[in-house]
Design a protein that fits this description.
mainly alpha
């Protein structure tokens, strides 16, 4: 894959990630996934071009950490949903006439909630379980951002494009601050800088070939 193709795919992919993040509700994440795929194809091409495997390897580690985080969080969420000591108990406090069977969960729509029955202990347990899921996502998000930063910093030094390094810094700071809104904003700005940085990549200048004749050899004395 040529350098021009790699930088174009990377730039377009980063732009699609930006657009997809703003329109997730309407696109169901499809645009974002396509953007991620294009960026990874570009990083693989650039890793081959610069003969630096760390560019693509660290990006893969970042992706794996993100996927593991999502799976772990989903598993924890499912456990919470089907754990009768947490969510079921809370729902039974709110809907006393519900029999507690998840097969009849749809019947809650016709029931009147009774908030006065909610106990502090049940609310605390439910909030604690939700907090656990968020912590799992947050922790793996930081790990993913760490490897993404390593990939982008390596690319920055090889391509001599400082925006990649700047974007990687914003990315990891944003990952730490995702507990507040500004974290997501920083990560969005990082994706924007990455898109710009891809289009700033230029071919490496070729090393001039020396045309000077070698110095004459000194005859060996007999």
């Amino acid at each position: 894959m040529s350098l021009e193709t790699s930088k174009t795919l990377g730039g377009i992919g980063a732009i699609l990630i930006l657009v997809g993040s703003l329109a997730t509700t309407y696109t169901f994440g499809v645009i974002t996934i396509i953007g991620v795929i294009l960026v990874f194809i570009a990083l693989n091409g650039l890793a081959n071009y610069y003969h630096e495997s760390g560019i693509f390897t660290n990006a893969i580690y970042s992706l794996v950490a993100g996927i593991v985080g999502v799976v772990a969080a989903a598993a924890a969420a499912l456990y919470i949903i089907f754990d009768t000591t947490i969510l079921t108990k809370l729902l039974q406090d709110i809907y006393p006439s519900w029999n507690g069977s998840w097969s009849t969960i749809s019947s809650l729509r016709g029931m009147t909630p009774v908030t006065s029955n909610i106990s502090t202990g049940d609310v605390t347990s439910a909030l604690g379980a939700i907090f656990l899921v968020l912590v799992i996502v947050w922790a793996f998000g930081i790990v993913a951002a760490f490897f993404a930063r390593r990939s982008l910093k390596t690319l920055s030094s090889k391509a001599i494009v400082g925006l990649f390094s700047t974007a990687s810094l914003l990315l990891i700071i944003g990952a730490f601050l995702t507990i507040i809104f500004i974290g997501f904003l920083l990560m969005w700005v990082a994706a924007l800088l990455i898109a710009i940085a891809f289009f700033q990549i230029k071919p490496q200048p070729e090393q001039p070939v020396s045309t000077m004749a070698p110095p004459p050899s000194t005859p060996t004395p007999v």
